[in-house]
Amino acid sequence: MTTPSDRQAYPSHWEADVVLRDGGTARIRPITAEDADRLVSFYEQVSDESKYYRFFAPYPRLSAKDVHRFTHHDQVDRVGLAATVGGEFIATVRFDRIDSRGMSASAPADEAEVAFLVQDAHQGRGVASTLLEHIAAVARERGIRRFAAEVLPANTKMIKVFTDAGYQQKRSFEDGVVRLEFDLEPTDRSLAVQRAREQRAEARSVQRLLTPGSVAVIGVGRTPGGVGRSVLRNLRGAGFTGSLYAVNSAFDEGAGGGEIDGVPAYRSVRDIDAPVDLAVVTVPAERVPQAVAECGERGVPGLVVISAGYAESGPEGRERQRELVRQARSYGTRILGPNAFGVINTSPDVRLNASLAPHPPERGRIGLFTQSGAIGIALLSGLHRRGAGLSTFVSAGNRADVSGNDVLQYWYEDPDTDVALMYLESIGNPRKFTRLARRAATAKPLVVVQGAKHSGIAPTGHAVQATRLPYATVSALLRQAGVIRVDTVTEMVDAGLLLAGQPLPAGPRVAILGNSESLGLLTYDACVADGLRPMPPRDLTTGATPDDFRGALVDALSDDACDSVIVTAIPWVGEDGPTPESPEGEELAAALRDAAAGCPAKPVAVVHVELGGLAEALAAASRTRPDAPASAPGAGGCAHPSPSSQLRSSRGDPNRPAERLPTATVDPDPAHRIPAYPAAERAVRALAEAVKYGQWRREAVEPGKVHEYEDIDEHGTARRIDELLAGQDDPRGATLTQDDARELLGRYGIDVRDALPAPDPDAAVAAARTLGFPVALKTTAPHLRHRADLGGVRLDLADEEQLRRAYAELTETFGKPVELRPVVQAMAPRGVDTVVRAVIDPAAGAVLSFGLAGAASELLGDTGHRLIPVTERDAGSLIRSIRTAPLLFGWRGSAPVDTPALEELLQRVSRLVDDHPEVVTVSLEPVVVAQRGLSVLGASVRLAPPPARDDLGPRALPGY
Q1: What is the dihedral of CA 482, 485, 490, 491, to 10 degrees?
Q2: For residue 345, what are the β-bridge partners?
């Protein structure tokens, strides 16, 4: 029997911080021999009933033998994990490998018995289900494929943990015990369950920051001024509905007894004799650890750290930031910041302004997230100036803990948020962000602008993974996930206003009307440039009255050939010339609102030039109010869409797409808010983004399927990959030989044509005879590979004489055979040369790329990208996404090639990379697509050990 605690080195990669169901955090780690006292203390706090359920008999205390057994594991056949808060155990789980008779065993036995014990005070927080995810991942890593558990029938909570996990399982009842057996191979249902639990937990953690019942501001000075005093003033000014406390260690001794601006003052959070839900920390960085410790001991669940002096200040600050996160998580606390601007919630039930913004925004339907405080200030001001209200605002600073991903989880089900705007300077977990964005976009628009996109470095203070993908590729992948990707904060506000106040357009057809022919033509040109289909502008002449605009807009909205309308307006020209400041601006706004209210199913936008009062009147009509009364159908043949036509997002199941697309997202306010823009290009660009997003929503209803191919050898490929990696000493992996690459790809139905080495002319002739003439002679030297333009490839060599002549020409021109590494390959049918690549990017995840071979993709960057796994719809759209795609479909009278065969190849490569994360690079070049079929002439495959954890593994917060 193995006596040391670890038969293998301590598996530190099993450690993880996790968010529990109630939004608090816990740390999961392996149990070691040093945990004996913690285990005993933990067991003493477990109720007799829970002990009985665990051991099937009264078991008041653990014996010394029990303690030794439960703290000494070999980390292979016996593994124990603990969930801890504040360094103390709150739950444990362990597995013991067993054989078919249920006796202790070692590998290759692939079954294990699993058992849990959760402290009663922490039951109901989702601790056991989270531990199950992690212990299952550990078991799979150790070659265990199935768990068995014996549970008393009365232990319904634990039975529910197993049955709700989503694994395929069998249940039996014998000798008064329920026996559950389930495979650990993840299923669609188990992954859906895991994602749903992740969403609820992370959303709840953000909700606790945004809806506190009480707030303590730590660092409030006695004298006016300072950050702490400003935050306290802003909280009071917003009318916070809960309890407020001012905290400063310099206050007089004693708990309470003093006030700051009418708010009770204390020396420490520990002195407050009521619950504290949120602490806003504004003290200098060197004093923050003490404040965090006091909050942790007091049980404060959330912190907003406005204090600066962390990772943005250099290496010393970066280490200070790591320690801050570790300290907070040890207490089960989540942090927004450090170096944060704060949070705002305009809900009348909360009215929270725990930020440095002196004037909170009005209530509205837009959620705003920023990483930069300065950009946050500018966006708040700009949105307010244009009449837009917010539901919530979060500025995360260095986002050391709470990030945009967490806020997305909250907004997904937030009934007060219809549109999400995000300014990101970095994306810490792009794989997860893309997954969450795709799901969120099925329910509500998500508009993102990314700063620092061309600098190649992350902003100071942001811990991010480096990406090897160019910015354009990342942008394309985000758009694939349904993100409305814009380049500037101005464009983000423009798009947000349209999406928050107007329905989604049903298509790209745009009617243009107004009192300026020139402005109408500019709008027409902008529509064409942005891919819309504008109708000829309708000129109402400069003498048009508000009634003329009303009638023209009613006509346009009633036209079935129109999906949206852009109204252009310039100052009226009367008998006394232009009148830009006339009250007719307000009259025009009223006329446009009346007309739009009669047909709320189509979006309307206004372009105005020097027309005083119009933009303000439109903005004042409805600041995206969530409590506006319902309106009746208006004139002009338009009617409100029925409730059944609205999009129903499947929020109960985050992995299922929305069921149907709305013809409109109708603002019930009769004074329908119409966004106004000072330039035609801005209005058109916002509308174009809405059109593309609407198209994405329609396609998301039926996203396609990942095709299953019967000839794929998934398990055999996995074994072969293990064999190939076992012989590699470099942890970074290695590129396979041509033979190994061909064999591995062949297991997934990807046939690569043989290329026989030709170190001399005689060998070349022998290879050609083996393959059969005609053949191609090509060099494989790195500097000449795939460079037919340099003359390193000779085609259609029909006989030995031509082959020998070509061989001599190559060696005379480029060098010795040992340098050129020539090969002979049978000629493939003529077609279009293409390139298929797949790569595992450390930041973006698995990406499939496609383009034409040669200058088109290399020089011009004409390459399409899709996230893996790709569906049949993704494969088809990928082929058609490149600018040179017409060459595949019969351009200028040429014969179309076999694109279905190409789509199948793309899906097979996607399956290979998705099924086996060890395959980090696949390059097929060239792939010659003929009229019937295709030929893969060259292939390269690189393998590397998979990451210990990725976005497909058990739930875990980013490590610190």
Answers
A1: -70
A2: 352, 392
